[in-house]
Amino acid sequence: MNAPRATALAALLVLAAACGQEPAKPPAQGTLVVRLVGADRKPYRYESTLSISWFPPDGNGSRSEVKLARGRAEASVEIPFGAKITLTALADGAWLAPEHVDPLTQEAPRRECSLSITHEPIKLLVRVIAPDGKPYEGGSVVARLGREPAEATRLVFPPEPKRLPDPTTIPLDAKGEAVLSLPAGAAALGATFMELGFRDLKGVVRLPEGLAPGEVALGDVTLSRPIPIASGVITGGDKKPIIGAELRVRAGAPPREIDASLLRVLRQERGRFSIEGWTGAKSCELVVEHDEHVTGEPRAFEVGAKDLQVVLERGGGVVLDATFPASKPLDALELWLEAEGARPVARARKAERGAEGRLRVVWRGVPAGSWSLRGRRGGDAVTLLEGLAVEAGTVCRDPRLAGLALDRLW
């Protein structure tokens, strides 16, 4: 404490004693002002959470978290003198590394400092349009990243897909514009579309391939209620209705399966179905699968089509009870049925790993004919069995399917 300040304080004590009053205590805390800045050293423009922790000499620590809205990049907090101070922030989906700040003192009761956000995020920019065609002004929408289900492959045990970020509520400005901020690492998660929703309204926009850090303008997204996509009936070759079929809708070029969250499949009696949902496509393809019937070629249709007639031919089944090295992993294992001149039966309807190196795989809806069982796991394809006779309406009884050793695939 400097001499003039000490003299003034002594005079105050003397005056207080003369008046019979307790002297006024000096303040025990000061003010810390923290500003968030981007890589360009300008105020950070997007939503973030600032976390300020402090630990006084007595050891009773405390923390203050401040939510910073878009356009607000500054916060202040009262902190006791002498406390150790640590700053960090949640921005673009990632926490910054902690930074330490010198304690506040009576000689320096106020301090201003900056916290730099140096990583380059991905900014998805959209303008949300209401059903009346006007920008959706103010309020907020829930944004969800998604990816279309993978096409039917030969994988028996595909790897678990990487988890996408949880749905996030993002505010809209007066022009209906919004920004979804993502960490740069989100580009590797394989998201292919963004869904925006509010109550029973929803809109979808495709994401460009190869997202990279920086701003990505996605254009306008129109919110709407679900629209009729198609309706019809599914029957077998005997004209009897088929119940319990699985319906998938594909769109685009090349066609990609529309995410199930964007569709509502309504089944009715006697094999009838109707589908409604959200898609910006004018034409789609319908894929129908059923355990006991052959999956036919995708059926093209115009959105809004009615009374589609889908006829499935009855197929047979193949059940493989195999063995494999119990210590080996099954991820990326591929098994499929193949016949000359026919499309490979790639999608196993059921796969179960049993105890002590046992594996059971079931194919349904296999066209009648002679088939070969082929497989691989990272190397060249290997023919495991030939001449599997499949008949419609029955399960193949070939004894070679029981106890088949798959060791050579590893």
Folded structure, characterized:
- Strand 26 and strand 27 (358-366) form a beta hairpin.
- The strands form 8 sheets. Strands 2, 3, 5, 6 and 7 form a 5-stranded antiparallel β-sheet that branches. Strands 11-10-13-14 form a 4-stranded antiparallel β-sheet, with no helix packed on it. A 4-stranded mixed β-sheet has the order 19-20-16-23, with no helix packed on it.
- The protein is built from 1 helix and 30 strands.
- 23% of the residues are buried.
- The protein has one helix at 3-19, and strands at residues 29-37, 48-55, 62-68, 74-80, 84-91, 94-95, 99-101, 110-116, 122-129, 140-146, 168-171, 177-182, 193-198, 201-206, 214-222, 227-236, 246-251, 256-257, 263-267, 272-277, 283-289, 299-302, 305-312, 316-323, 334-338, 350-353, 358-366, 369-376, 382-390, 402-405.
- The protein has 4 domains: 3-7 and 27-116, Immunoglobulin-like (Sandwich); 122-222, Immunoglobulin-like (Sandwich), CATH 2.60.40; 227-312, Immunoglobulin-like (Sandwich), CATH 2.60.40.1110; 316-409, Immunoglobulin-like, CATH 2.60.40.
- It is mainly beta.
Short description:
By secondary structure, this protein is mainly beta.
